[in-house]
């Protein structure tokens, strides 16, 4: 199971039409481009995919489209998290039936649920659906941080196969890996990919993986070979792009970068604001520099 799930995944963006509808035609083109350029898996309807801005029906359509276009050549993980447990279960059941290798879930948010309620949310899904589950730890967005202590009850469950650790707290990552070394630890912040590997991550799910899958694979290969100097140089190159993308809005930035490459991905849904002409020019200039360096 671990070999089937572990890898470098693109947290795939969800293309939109000019009127704000999901563009399934462009999504298929995007999947084909990324497969050609070496992605090892897709993480569907997560933060990058605007999962919480999509209806349940749209989330199902997006997942089905990615699964159909990949044709089983790479693994697909469905992010099914949302605040309502019944919706999470509905999406997880659909993902299992559609052919996803695993589902992933953010913890419930907004109401400041206590630890027992958060763990219970995951356990409700565990009881309802027979599919591997990846905890999505993204405290900057949810206000909930999974540590060795707070994740122990869940990581002890065999159906919980790992954690997507989107946090700069690599101490927590290392401590969870030390306690549960059999689990898969996905680095979530692209800008600390190399540091995440050093702290115990063996996989990645990232927004800029969409654009630069080969770069992530090269960093991993150099790290595994013990060539930290060259790995750090490539991380620096990646961070040059990440820095600009974060300044202009990373999800819209990645979408526009693909538009420049001939795949019209549109803008993120409101309340996200479309990129300005100046921001678009910055992205175009950046890609020109990266592609010639």
TrEMBL record:
Record keyword Lyase present: yes
A Pfam family reported for this protein in Swiss-Prot or TrEMBL: DHDPS
Active site, UniProt feature: 136, 164
An example Gene Ontology molecular-function term: N-acetylneuraminate lyase activity
Any Gene Ontology biological process: N-acetylneuraminate catabolic process
Keywords: Lyase, Schiff base
Binding site residues for pyruvate: 205
One GO cellular component term: cytosol
CDD domains: DHDPS-like
NCBIfam families according to UniProt: PRK04147.1
Family recorded in the similarity comment: Belongs to the DapA family.
Protein name stated in the entry: N-acetylneuraminate lyase
């Amino acid at each position: 199971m671990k070999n089937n799930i572990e890898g470098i995944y693109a947290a795939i963006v969800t293309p939109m039409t000019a009127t704000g509808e999901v563009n399934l035609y462009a999504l298929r083109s995007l999947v084909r481009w990324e497969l050609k350029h070496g992605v090892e898996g897709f993480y569907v309807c997560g933060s990058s995919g605007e999962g919480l801005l999509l209806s349940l029906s749209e989330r199902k359509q997006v997942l089905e489209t990615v699964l159909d276009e990949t044709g089983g050549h790479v693994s697909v993980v469905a992010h099914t998290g949302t605040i309502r447990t019944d919706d999470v279960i509905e999406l997880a059941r659909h993902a299992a039936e559609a052919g996803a290798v695993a589902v992933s879930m953010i913890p419930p948010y907004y109401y400041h649920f206590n630890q027992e309620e958060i763990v219970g949310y995951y356990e409700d899904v565990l009881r309802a659906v027979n599919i591997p589950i990846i905890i999505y730890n993204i405290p900057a967005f949810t206000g909930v941080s999974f540590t060795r202590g707070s994740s122990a009850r869940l990581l002890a469950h065999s159906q919980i196969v790992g954690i997507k650790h989107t946090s700069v707290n690599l101490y927590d990552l290392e401590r969870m890996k030390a306690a549960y070394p059999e689990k898969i630890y996905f680095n979530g912040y692209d800008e600390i990919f190399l540091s995440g590997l050093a702290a115990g991550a063996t996989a990645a799910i990232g927004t800029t993986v969409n654009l630069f899958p080969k770069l992530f694979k090269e960093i991993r290969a150099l790290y595994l070979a013990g060539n930290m100097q060259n790995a750090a140089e490539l991380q620096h190159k990646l961070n040059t792009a990440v820095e600009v993308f974060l300044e202009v809005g990373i999800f819209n930035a990645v979408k526009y970068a693909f538009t420049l490459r001939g795949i019209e991905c549109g803008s993120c849904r409101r309340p996200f604001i479309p990129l300005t002409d100046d921001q678009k020019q910055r992205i175009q200039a950046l890609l020109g520099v990266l592609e010639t360096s």
